[in-house]
Amino acid sequence: MGNSFGCSASGERLVSAARDGDLVEAKMLLEFNPCLAKYSTFGGLNSPLHFAAAKGHNEIVALLLENGADVNSRNYCGQTALMQACRYGHWEVVQTLLLFRSNVIRADYLSGRTALHFAAVNGHARCIRLVVADFVPSVSYEVISSQTNGERGSSSNLRNKYDQPALSKFVNKAADGGITALHMAALNGHFDCVQLLLDIHASVSSVTFHYGTSMDLIGAGSTPLHYAACGGNLKCCQILLARGASRLTLNCNGWLPVDVARIWGRHWLELLLAPNSDLVLPTFPPSNYLSLPLMSVLNIARDYGLQPSTATSDDSNICAVCLERACDVAAEGCRHELCVRCALYLCSTSNIPSEMAGPPGSIPCPLCRHSIISFNKLPGSPEKELKLHLSLGLCTPCMLHHHDPDTPTATCKSEIRKNRVAAVSSDLLCSVSCSPFHSVAIPLCTCNDESCPSLELQEREMQGVSSDSHGTSVEQDKLEGPRLERVSCSRLFWNRRSCHREHQCNSEINA
Fold it and tell me: Any idea of its EC number (predicted)?
């Protein structure tokens, strides 16, 4: 679609504008022909939306979506724009895509990875907090516990209910080979992501599949602790053990986590991971990237849209943060008023330690530092919706949450009829596909068209000493010892056809 001779030249100009961030050129082309928003490059590798999302050009992403681009469109590898934004850590683009109801549970064709996997493997905690926003309600943990243990009430509004099984199912969704987002974050030593995933019910006991992999040097049947032992990050191992991970779990190779640490040269972990270890584990507070108010303000932004700058001398209710827009939301508790754009930015970026803000996951008010758990819409504000199209009607809640018997499902059915296999949930299919997702090949493929480097060459190249990824102290670096770089793809770990397909899409974006 969109590749005919009549519009291919204009389509390529739009692709170049989306890649380079040329907003003026993109506006001119879309004003001339709005259908160009659905253009895709030769062979369906990528659309302009994929280019803009991968490069972090948020204004162009919004422009394409407003002109009819499908927020859930896939490239040749089955990856959506949300996956590309999470891959490169462009949280503002992720936010915009979620406002247009991007489907967060879609998985790619190659390895069954979701946007959560792409964010976890590269350590983008802000992207993770946005991707799970529709599953974490804007209520205190005490209310969550009471709803989980007692009556949930008669309200049919999904925003006011806490569906813990849906959250756990999404966070623990396995890619090919049984790899979860927690496995990925633990392997690469992204402590902030590991901590956040554990706080939103990621399972420390999930194991990789006993089938579906041709070679796995960590071993099938491995837990996130096995992967953390391979990655060599001390804090990741400590928090996994503090959250209930077992040192005595054997994988299919008969290896304990301490055996994996020895095999991969992580000798500084042996004392911690020893089966009879008596080391005292540190206490870890809740993650600084929890954001309870995010769900409430995200839904308000979806229903009412984001205001443009409308401040004038006659305005008496101007947002005290930006001094540009009128206030349209109020913080529950302190009742300080903000514009929805500032509230959304605050919930997406704040990482204040929870002991300073109040209840875990609350956000401090920028005006009085009172802890905010949710936002409410101010009465009297005119309702104005984002320009959503039929292709954007399939949202996350209708995919994972249970429907009432009388709830119509015409939107979901029409989406399935329209996109056929592309829109069918991967939960209905076997989790292992023809191209296995090998555990050591979790990081993105960086090889070229030539043969990938051998394992021996990688091991020689990865013997350097590097500092901790989150800027820990020198003493912490000495305790952890040397860390290997992220493992790139190898013919021992990755299916060559899958590797080549993803390389095609990535090289087109990064050209």
Answer: 2.3.2.27
Measured in whole angstroms, the distance separating CA 316 from the mean position of its chain's CA atoms is 39
Largest CA distance in the chain: 73
Angstrom distance (rounded) from CA 239 to CA 222: 17
Q: Write out pLDDT tens, residues 352-379.
A: 876 665 788 899 999 988 889 999 999 8
- What is the C-alpha separation between 125 and 91, in angstroms, rounded? 9
pTM of the model: 0.75
Q: How far apart are CA 11 and CA 26, in angstroms?
A: 10
* Rounded-to-integer distance, Cα 471 and Cα 366, Å: 27
Domain 292-377: what homologous superfamily? Zinc/RING finger domain, C3HC4 (zinc finger) (3.30.40.10)
Tell me if 17 sits within 8 A of 59, measured CB to CB.
no
Distances (CA, A) of 72 to 100, 214, 388, 406: 10, 32, 12, 27
pLDDT tens-digit map of 281-335: 999 999 999 999 999 999 999 988 877 755 554 566 899 898 888 898 999 888 9
CATH topology of domain 1-103: 1.25.40
Rounded Cα distance, 303 and 375, in Å: 14
CB 226 within 8 A of CB 257: yes
Q: Which of 109, 107, 116, 60 is nearest to 87 (CA)?
A: 116
Nearest to 75 by CA among 99, 101, 52, 98: 52
| CATH 3.40.1050.10 for domain 112-141+163-289 | no
* Selected residue with higher pLDDT from 142 and 41: 41
- Three-class secondary structure of residue 364 per DSSP: strand
Sign of CA dihedral 395, 399, 402, 407: positive
Report the Cα 79 to chain-centroid distance in Å: 13
The position carrying tokens 């990237």 is 289
What count of residues does the chain have? 511
Q: Is 89 left (phi over 0), alpha (psi -120 to 50) or beta?
A: left
Q: How far apart are CA 398 and CA 383, in angstroms?
A: 23
Q: How far is CA 487 from the centre of its chain?
A: 21
- Summarised one tens digit per residue, pLDDT across range 151-191 is 444 334 434 445 678 999 999 999 988 999 999 999 999 99
One-letter amino acid of 106:
R
Give the Cα separation of 224 and 25 in Å (integer): 47
Where does the chain hold its CATH 1.25.40.20 domain(s)? 1-103, 112-141+163-289
